[in-house]
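Lab notebook, bench 4. The sequencing result for the construct came back, and we need a structural model before the next group meeting so we can plan mutations. Quick request posted to the team channel:

Model the 3D structure of this chain.
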Amino acid sequence: MITLSPVVTMPNLSRVRAVRFESDDESKVALVRFRFSNPAGTRFVELVATVCNAPARSMGLKVNPSPRAWDDIVVHEPGLELTGGYDALDAAIEAAAGREARLRAIETWALSSGLLNGFAGSVS
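Done. Here's the predicted structure in token form:
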């Protein structure tokens, strides 16, 4: 889980967790489902990010600067060029042992690569 620092104060978003991932080595595309939640974990929204090697074809996630409701606090950000793309994500996943370790590796990579744009925090 990523504990955000600083917390996104409107509307009190404090945690991000990679909850599922699927990858296809042949097409070099990965889908990662992230869950964004409040401090109590009682409200959340889930969105899927796409990672690929093709230039400007990955789709990340960012904070919506003017949310209208809880379910649009995070929005998709298309056209990303991620450092290393699918190959870098795949290497991070392969280096981890076990499902939970792989999810933590995805979270760490997502913060450093820009897949989660504008978010900062620590992975635990």
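The chain has a mean pLDDT of 90.
Will bring this to the meeting.
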